[in-house]
Design goal:
Chain lengths: 329, 318
């Protein structure tokens, strides 16, 4: 077994909650949003790990913390054998080129005043990988590669001339131009029409093959995760509740939350559905985290044990782990 | 027939040209049925929904057609009459509930007002508001909350509660779950289904055809400002006749489908200058030169209740 490309150990990110002036004067202790509360996982070279969860589960914070776009509160991030958790900005720079991020919103992640060709060439110049003319050549090739042709014509366009799907292709081209070894894709297809998602996913898949690129693919849509991920991690309120091979997790979800997520997804192939596992309510905020298992207030199977003790991740199948006192079987 | 739309066209007069947002749209909605309009962004699905309410935003204009609600043409009705129907007999909810909720007033306040403007007295309105909140599974104390104190899902529930105040005959829901997580989306769909079971017709708009199949009775597919196929869910899913409908079904990521998802090549056209002939022909693998690129196909009934606008419906099966 080769070393994983990325290793994340007990990663935590707490954000302080702003106190009002009266609270500050009365010395009310600062409270924290425990957005990411001790997660560990590994990603191999060329592997896509799908990070699934609802809004507020900490998946976006996790993705950004892994890249150190947000500083972790605790834990360790090891990239290709180097602990990057405490590297200075300067020391981090060579790693920046190797790790990229694709954001959800193709409308706000491109500068409206930069031609899309220049936007793609820009990272090459910043990292000193090419001179102006050469960077333009590479950007043109990249435009072609992501299907924005005729590329000479697209080079000079501005983002507002493009559709959402086309913009997302530009965002992908800009990240891929550096030939990254690892990419965090944060809801990369969520704002795109369902009909366009497949083609964007195919594009990412083709880059994975070409660069043997690893991905942390963050999504709230488990059906999208199924298409692209080798393994799936499900997060709830800052914790990993289940992790395992995609097929196995989808066919035999062991955590009641995972099962509820799967059953809530609309499907054409299975439009007359089996009985649902009803869960109620919505994700609580990460300041007042429930005792014991964080999911217990919404869980139909919760009992005394769940209210009192937080479950640990245990192996329930080959490489399949779940944090639940009463895993489904 | 509860709602009959005949030959409806809506254009947007923008600085860069006339965008033909919807053209020659005809369909009907029966009492107590759930019909879902499916299409990509820019297909005109939302434009038609707004036109049915006679609420097309500027610079859009309804340039032709009729919208018959219980036999009365809403496009010809004086404002006073129209307002009596809107918000009472037909209501609409949106993707972002904050477009219809006032951030400065409590949920209860807004619910009560929605009823008093139609002549309900205040005490009665208050009692009913609490009942309506329970109907969408919100605790009664949310009555005193401001919209920002609620989650996105809860806000959407409030806007549904307001929309249901008078048990409308028709509820138009324009992508009401697009911004929500799947579990919340599922519960909103269940609530709408409950409304339907109590007799309200649901006119649902979405870009996600998989969302249409479980609870709708019929599906209407739009492409580039045109209605291309209408049928029962079974007809559309088991026996799609328009190549676009087929492509749309195959392009959706689906948890339970074996095999690959197939992307639709190309992009929807610019509606300032839509393609000649069939608007789908530049992206259609079955298009025939000399016909599909020159002659616009009629929208016709090919089997009972199943309409399609295509020169070669279901051609891939032959």
């Amino acid at each position: 077994m080769s070393e994983p490309l990325l290793k994340v150990e007990n990663l935590k990110k707490y954000f302080p909650v702003k106190r009002g002036i009266i609270e500050a004067l009365r010395k009310v202790p600062v409270r924290y949003v425990r957005a990411v509360d001790g997660i560990s996982f590994e990603i191999k070279r060329g592997e896509v790990l799908g990070l699934i969860g609802e809004s507020g589960c900490g998946k976006t914070t996790a993705g950004r913390t892994v890249l150190r776009l947000i500083e972790p509160t605790a834990g360790r991030i090891v990239f290709d054998g180097t602990d990057i958790t405490a590297l200075s900005r300067e020391e981090l720079r060579p790693f920046r080129r190797r790790m990229q991020i694709i954001f959800q919103d193709p409308y706000s992640s491109l500068s409206p005043r930069m031609k899309i060709g220049d936007a793609i060439a820009h990272p090459l110049l910043v990292h000193g990988l090419a001179e102006k003319e050469e960077a333009k050549e590479i950007a043109l090739k990249m435009l072609r590669r992501v299907g924005l042709t005729p590329e000479e014509e697209f080079y000079d366009r501005y983002p507002h001339h493009l559709s959402g799907g086309q913009r997302q292709r530009v965002v992908i081209a800009r990240a891929m131009v550096l030939k990254p070894e690892f990419v965090v894709a944060d809801e990369a297809v969520s704002m795109i029409d369902v009909s366009m998602r497949a083609s964007i996913l195919e594009l990412l898949e083709s880059f994975r093959e070409e660069y043997n690129m690893s991905q942390l693919f963050i999504t709230h849509d488990i059906a999208v995760g199924k298409l692209i991920a080798d393994r799936i991690v499900v997060m709830y309120l800052g914790k990993i509740v289940e992790i395992g091979p995609t097929e196995e997790v989808l066919k035999n979800p062991a955590h009641p939350y995972t099962r509820a997520l799967i059953q809530a997804v609309p499907s054409i192939a299975r439009r007359k559905r089996e009985k649902k596992l009803r869960i109620t309510g919505e994700v609580p905020n990460a300041v007042n985290i429930p005792s014991g298992c964080r999911f217990h207030p919404r869980c139909p199977l919760a009992d005394e044990l769940c209210r009192e003790r937080e479950p640990e991740l245990v192996e329930v199948g080959h490489n399949h782990f779940v944090a639940c006192h009463h895993p489904l079987r | 027939m509860l709602l009959e739309v005949k030959n409806l066209s809506v254009y947007y007069y923008t600085l860069s040209g006339v965008v033909k947002g919807a053209e020659g749209i005809s369909f009907s909605v029966r009492e107590g049925e759930w019909i879902t309009f499916v299409g990509e962004s820019g297909s005109g699905k939302s434009t038609v929904a707004h036109a049915v309410m006679n609420l097309v935003p500027s610079p859009g204009r309804i340039v032709s057609g009729e919208v018959l609600f219980n036999g009365r043409n809403l496009l010809k009705l004086p404002g006073e009459e129209l307002r009596k129907i809107r918000g009472k007999e037909m209501t609409m909810i949106f993707q972002d509930p904050m477009t219809s909720l006032d951030p400065l007033r409590t949920v209860g306040d807004q619910m009560v007002e929605a009823m008093t403007v139609h002549g309900v007295d205040e005490a009665e309105a208050k009692r009913k508001a609490k009942e309506l909140l329970e109907g969408v599974n919100l605790p009664g104390d949310r009555f005193n909350y401001y919209p920002h104190q609620l989650s996105g899902g809860q806000r959407q529930r409030v806007s549904i509660a307001i929309a249901m105040a008078f048990r409308p005959k028709l509820l138009i829901a324009d992508e009401p779950t697009t911004a929500l997580d799947v579990i919340v989306q599922d519960s909103i769909m269940d609530i709408l289904n409950g409304m339907k079971e109590e007799g309200t017709s649901i006119y649902f708009v979405t870009h996600d055809i998989s969302l249409a199949v479980e609870r709708s009775d019929r599906i209407a597919v739009m492409y580039a400002g045109k209605l291309v196929e209408v049928g029962t869910v079974d007809q559309i899913v088991e026996n799609p006749l328009h190549p676009y409908t087929k492509a749309l079904i195959e392009a959706v990521p689906d948890l339970w489908k074996e095999g690959k998802v197939r992307a639709i090549p190309g992009y929807p056209p610019d509606l300032r200058s839509p393609p000649s002939g069939c608007r789908f022909h530049p992206r259609c693998p079955y298009a025939k030169a000399g016909l599909c690129d020159t002659e616009e196909p009629d929208f016709r009934e090919v089997e009972r209740g199943h309409f399609v606008a295509c020169h070669f419906p279901g051609v891939w099966r032959k």
